[in-house]
Write a structure and sequence with these properties.
Number of helices: 4
Strand content: 15-25%
Radius of gyration: 20 Å
Order of helices and strands: EHHEEEEHEEH
Helix content: 25-40%
Distance between the termini: 48 Å
Oligomer: single chain
């Protein structure tokens, strides 16, 4: 299983806050490995569940030989497992002096820049499954709905710290407008 060390999608170091980087380069923070574990468990659960339902249904309605087609959903596992790892490694964020950078994507690389002064609302969200795995997400809302951004799968303490910091910086930057 992969860990959070190393580089993310061929970019700058994706380590934690203490990583060395040249002046002027953003310090990227990678997502915790709990998000990858959760997503991989969901992949296994859905694939196995779908295979069981398909196997029983085909076995009863069409006969035991047709039940072998229930193995088709399991073929997603060897393909999806490494793809989830690559996707997880591509997510990272960096806090700069005037804005927040969010980088993601393997084939289509996206980098979102959210100026602190444009933030209107910063939310910490955590669904039942995320809470079970000790994860939370930060949702950033700006004046333009198209520029809303999300950072998924953070530790709850880091999500709350980030929310408080972004809110503080947003209020300070928007006070001059």
């Amino acid at each position: 299983m992969e860990t959070g060390s190393g580089t993310a999608a061929g970019g700058p170091a994706a380590g934690g806050r203490g990583s060395e980087s040249p002046p002027g380069d953003p310090v990227w923070t990678a997502l915790p490995p709990g998000l990858l574990v959760m997503r991989r468990l969901l992949l296994v659960a859905w694939s196995v569940g779908l295979a069981l339902v398909a196997g029983v249904t085909l076995g009863v309605l069409a006969g035991p030989a047709w039940a072998l087609f229930a193995l088709v959903p399991l073929s997603v596992l060897p393909w999806g497992w490494p793809l989830l790892g690559r996707n997880w490694r591509s997510w990272r964020y960096a806090e700069r002096a005037d804005d927040l950078l969010i980088s993601r994507g393997v084939l289509w690389h996206e980098q979102t820049v959210v100026p602190y002064g444009r933030m209107q609302l910063v939310e910490v969200t955590s669904g039942p499954l995320e809470r079970r795995f000790g994860l939370a997400g930060v949702q950033l809302h700006t004046a333009a709905a198209a520029t809303d951004a999300r950072i998924p799968g953070l530790d709850p303490a880091e999500a709350e710290r980030l929310r408080d910091r972004l809110t503080e910086l947003g209020e300070a930057r928007s006070a001059g407008l």
